[in-house]
Amino acid sequence: MKRNIKDFILIAVKGIGMGAADVIPGVSGGTIAFITGIYEELLASIKKSPLAFKIFIESKFNVKLFWKELNGNFLFSLLLGIGISILSLAKLMTYLLKDHPIPVWSFFFGLILASVWFVLKDIKKWKSSYFVSLILGVVAGYLITVISPSETPDNLWFVFLSGVIAICAMILPGISGSFILLLLGKYKYILAALDRVDIPVLMVFAAGAVIGIISFSHFLSWLLKKYKFLTIAFLAGIMFGSLNKIWPWKQTVESITDSHGQIIPLVEKNILPATYSETTDSPSLLFYAIAMMLAGLAIIFVMDIIATKLKKNNELQ
């Protein structure tokens, strides 16, 4: 596939979207990759990376051959966007989630709800097995969101393990790598490491992420090749089930204070906007929430229209 500079800028923009999603507990960078049409290419590129390094060594460090085998231009553009987004948005997202949680969660609720439709529309003929896979995905997604966060050690071995587990979630549509980090008790720890540029912690976490993503991409690529629509139905189900976590109006039933003095909600329940106003003595911001949900929905539908037009233009060329 021949690409020009505009194509790679667009890939970088998609990477920015993935990075922004990955710093939010409850939203998956894999979802953004899926709805922007780069998911399967991303998996294929990650899967081929060990072979590319092998060829690099066997060819006596032929950079051009290595870069081509790696799909380097695509990965570089995407990782550049992800890196820019994570480094620049970590503070912003922390601020928004703390001071404006309802509009932020409402936006992503609409975004993911529309994404479920976007993913499922590729299945033209439904079979009973697809419905079963979808339901199992919904159940799995819901159960993941109701697991309580735990207090875990800050040792580097556990940071490495957290990187392995979180990256697998990050490339799955519907499962948030950040939320998995929250469950592992490492979300704020990694955010803080990003904020203060703690090189040892970030390098160990990145090493775990690299090993995890290469291993997991093979399995996921195999599933999409052998059981494409079953897998898509299951992933869409996970996305739908994860909406439980993203519901904007919540009441904290039980919380814990971690070793850094941060209060983390341990058990939360979803409540209606009116109940939220009564129990918290704060405005429900219902109008703003609906507007943000509609904005999230609109973005997906606009992206779908643009993607369809681009596809038609490419076919005519």
List keywords for this structure.
globular, 317 residues, mainly alpha, two-stranded antiparallel sheet
Task: Describe this structure as you would to a colleague.
This protein is mostly helical. It has one domain (5-316). Helix content is 74%, strand content 5%. The chain contains 15 helices and two strands. The chain has helices at residues 5-22, 29-35, 39-58, 63-70, 72-99, 101-120, 128-145, 156-170, 177-183, 187-196, 199-226, 228-241, 243-246, 273-280, 286-316, and strands at residues 250-257, 263-270. A two-stranded antiparallel ribbon has the order 1-2. A hairpin with a 5-residue loop joins strand 1 (250-257) and strand 2. The longest helix has 31 residues, at 286-316. The radius of gyration is 20 Å and the shape is globular. The mean pLDDT is 80.
* Class of secondary structure makeup: mainly alpha
Number of domains: 1
The oligomeric state is: single chain
User: How many strands?
Assistant: 2
Number of helices: 15
How large, in whole angstroms, is the Cα Rg?
Answer: 20 Å
Q: Give the H and E element order.
A: HHHHHHHHHHHHHEEHH
Terminus-to-terminus distance: 13 Å
Describe the sheet with the most strands: 2 strands, antiparallel
Mean pLDDT over all positions: 80
Rough outline? globular
Largest sheet strand order: 1-2
Strand content: 5-15%
Task: Indicate the percent of residues in helices.
Answer: over 70%
Contiguous runs where pLDDT drops below 50 for at least 5 residues: none
